[in-house]
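Homework help thread (please don't just give me the answer)

Our assignment gives two proteins as sequence + structure token strings and asks us to describe the second one. The first is just a warm-up. Here they are:
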Amino acid sequence: MREEIAYALTTPYSLRKSRTGGIIARLLSRTGLDLVAGRIFAPSAELASSYAEMVITHQNARHQKTQELIRNYVLAHFSPDLAGRRARCLMLLFKGEAAVAKVREVAGAIATERTSGETVRDTYGDYIVDEKGIVRHFEPAILVGQDPEEVKAHLELWARYSDADGSNLDKVVQFPPKSNVEQTLVLLKPDNFRFPNSRPGGMIDLFSRTGLFIIAFRVLMLSVAQAEELYRPVLGLLTEILRKPTGTRAREILSRELDLDLGAEVEKELGALLGPIQARFNWESIVEYMCGRRPSETKNEDRLNPGREKCIALVYQGVDAVSKIRSVLGPTDPKKAPLGSIRREFGQTIMINSAHASDSVENAQREMRIVQVWENDFKAEVEKYFSHR
């Protein structure tokens, strides 16, 4: 069966009501598809209007009624308001066999008399009609393409607007004057993507407890160079932490194996010699975990190439964003993390601990620059896929 590309567009209401995590969890775990890109949009009137008109295909009277319902919804909820304020939505791009049908099936029907909780719309959508059959409340939760040709037209439209309407969203959300508004980076680490599962969505769902706003979303594979730069401060920290215990352990081993009475001064020298070596080895293991390659085993010409491990980068914005995110994340060691924290729920070890979050506003800016959170992978994926069709 031929590989396809498909999209799921979370509505502004779903994003605003922090339903994003649950929707992503459902899509990842039940489609089995590869999430290859994601981008937060703040649609302009032109994008919203163009997308709304594309919904109308007039296949038959029954479909036309549903299409007009969606068209009117898009115009009302994706367009800027009268004051020019734009709503945020999240475009997710999936790839795999029968991707369009799989995404459509998990999304669920627009209107149904019975709900089972199986589909995204069963859980997060609303379709309420009165006794006369008039729709009184409609919330589709996500929008998807119905067939490959429709998906192609929709994605090419969103790709055209992806630079203008998908970048520099730090001014989209409005805050009261003099609020301590911060931005912070979250990285969902590679252990969450070993197989199709709900973990990435589950973590985003827990981060939503902060009440912060997602203003950037990027699927990426860190290069060795990026992982090295991201974790460079950790190398110095490990060197300091491991110097003394490494010296002590080396002294104990040498004393036992060589039957030597080595003093404290020798222990200090052993620590100064071997501590940085031990730190470097552990640090390279962290880099390898994040990108799939050890720096010492990577050729110079390959250091800038994408690695083998997938991550999701998110930027959260809001009042005291750094401390709020780190509070929900929990300490580095999952065993010491409080109940209900992300690392207690999803972490395994000090290194395989589910997610990374910036520890200061300054580091957040540094880390956002390293992982290039505003990079437009969505447009690149769309253009690459359809250029070969």
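The one we have to describe:
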Amino acid sequence: MKRGALIRILVMMMVWIPSGPIANASFSQESGKNNDRKTLLDLFLSGGILMWPLLLCSAGTATVSAYCILQINSKKVMPKEQTEIAFQHLRSGDATGAYTACQKWTTLFSAVLSSALLKVNYDRDLANKSSMEEAASETLAAEETRLMLWVNYLNVFATIAPMLGLLGTVTGMIASFDQLALGKVEPADLAGGIAEAMVTTAGGLIVGIPAMFAYFYFRNLLTVSLSRVQSQISFLIDVISGELRLEG
């Protein structure tokens, strides 16, 4: 499946959070000829106070996913035109020109390459290759940490949301048992606690499932992107050091 299609699926799942089964669900009760229909707001409020942190988790998942879409893509990680420009400079031995070009860019690739180019020294063996590789590795690790910080937030939301739903299940059942303890055994007496239990459980899963999907998707996408950057930087360092000689 192409990456664009996966992003569209992710966005649809984010939209599905507020407009999915809970939003479309309705509970009807016959009372003479009247048929009462609950709105989305009624369902949300029936879930109790725990629906508010679930709403925050839903908004956080959508926000972080949007940020990851903007940051973990080819234009922000390693645009093809930048690799070609850098290669042309380094192929002719113009490390200064390549570094100047990198300073004009704001991508992960340019940050890693510029840190390596600062260590270029043609007076040393292989143009100081070992120092270039070390500098590139350190910068790549720092960039990975920066981006994984945001991706890990998705894992936090995916973990917290179902737990909040489970907590709502417990509090809802406690409320129903409290009514039973008071001798109230009519369905209407127990409906409030049961509704709280079911709505929060469903809400936690509806928020948690897309968050978990987004976490694994962006984590794997970041891993693949960093691997491509590392491979390209290693290739360019070999060109600088003269270990890789190209003809034509």
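TA reply:
I won't write it for you, but here's a hint about the kind of observation we're looking for: The longest strand covers residues 30-31.
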